[in-house]
Specification:
The protein has a seven-stranded antiparallel β-sheet, with no helix packed on it. Strands 2-3-4-11-6-9-12 form a seven-stranded antiparallel β-sheet, with no helix packed on it. Strands 5-10-7-8 form a four-stranded antiparallel β-sheet, with no helix packed on it. It contains one helix and 26 strands. The longest helix is centred in the C-terminal third of the chain and has 13 residues. Strand 7 and strand 8 form a beta hairpin. With 300 residues, the protein is mainly beta. It has a single domain, classed as Jelly Rolls (Sandwich). 42% of the residues are buried. It is globular. It comes from Suillus luteus UH-Slu-Lm8-n1.
Length: 300
């Protein structure tokens, strides 16, 4: 814990409005929407739920990491590098697309099965590792460590998906700096989370209400709160205004590079995007299986 606990504050507040996405999916998008862009290194944040019959069959990525965290239900994953698995409620999949990968993400439906709901975060990769080999890490719920700042019988629990919180460290090792916490608090509970100096940070409220800083206003569910980044601020103070308040706190090292995005391809200039499209069309430089690989789960 930092000795000097000077809190960041909210500098921008964005309501993530629920909208249809494809056939059968509904998404609350904040980062990546018209109202919240250029929040390096973060490219997109979707709070999704998917009805039966919908899903995300085979599609490519290059140049970013995708982080899928299941809040309810489960989702299956399969990719062209040979990885496959099922993300259960409370589990996470951290996929670094690197120079190229094709994958499918298909929610699991059935009798007495909760409708799949979760968060997907896209994190830009530093320019010098955009063309690295793809990697994939999946953690079941029991493999994600939990910090209890007040002890296990207290009013705060912090799932440490990546990074460090209150003496607990995640086994996830993403390229570039990125901390990701899922916090649950009861009314009146307060905590201070250290954040590395200079890092971009935001909070997304899943349920309940929350104030930020020493005397900030109360913010309701489905708002993304962009935090200040001033010299001397060592972290953020967070206080729950209702019982069962639930939110994610995410922080990452900003990248001094431009973002050139064409759908699922994220590079740093137009020439690199054109080269990516050519690589995908011709099946090379990471997309060797682009026209031959088909997932089982996306083509059932």
């Amino acid at each position: 814990m930092a000795l000097n606990m000077t809190s960041r504050n909210v500098v921008k507040k964005v309501l993530a409005v629920e909208t249809p996405e494809g056939a059968g999916a509904r998404v609350r998008r904040s980062i990546g929407s018209a109202t919240l862009r250029n929040l390096t290194p973060f490219l997109l944040l979707d709070h999704f739920h998917v009805s039966e019959g919908a899903g995300f069959p085979d599609h490519p990525h290059r140049g970013q990491a995708t982080v899928t965290y299941m809040l309810e239900g489960s989702s299956r994953h399969e990719d062209s590098a040979g990885h496959s698995g099922t993300i259960q409620t409370g589990g996470v999949q951290w996929m670094c697309a690197g120079k190229g990968i094709i994958h499918a993400e298909m929610p699991v439906h059935g009798k007495n099965v909760p409708e799949p709901r979760g968060l997907q975060l896209w994190v830009d990769l530093p320019k010098n590792v955009k063309m690295t080999e793809p990697t994939y890490q999946e953690l079941d719920p029991e493999a994600i460590p939990v910090a209890y700042p007040e002890g296990k019988d207290g009013n705060i629990s912090i799932k440490v998906i990546s990074g460090k919180s209150h003496g607990v460290e995640s086994p996830v090792r993403p390229l570039g700096g990125c901390w990701y916490f899922h916090v649950m608090m009861n009314n009146g509970a307060t905590m201070f989370q250290d954040i590395p100096a200079g890092w971009t940070a935001f909070v997304y409220i899943l349920k309940g209400a929350l104030s930020v800083g020493e005397s900030g206003p109360v913010n309701d569910a489905f708002h993304t709160l962009v935090l200040s980044n001033e010299n001397g601020e060592t972290g953020v103070r967070l206080t729950a205004a209702t019982n069962d308040t639930s939110f994610v706190l995410v922080a990452g090292e900003p990248l001094d590079q431009t973002v050139f995005q064409y759908g699922p391809f994220v590079m740093t200039n137009q020439e690199e995007i054109q080269r990516t499209l050519m690589d995908y069309r011709t099946g090379r430089n990471g997309f060797e299986k682009a026209h031959t690989w088909k997932s089982k789960i996306g083509n059932m």
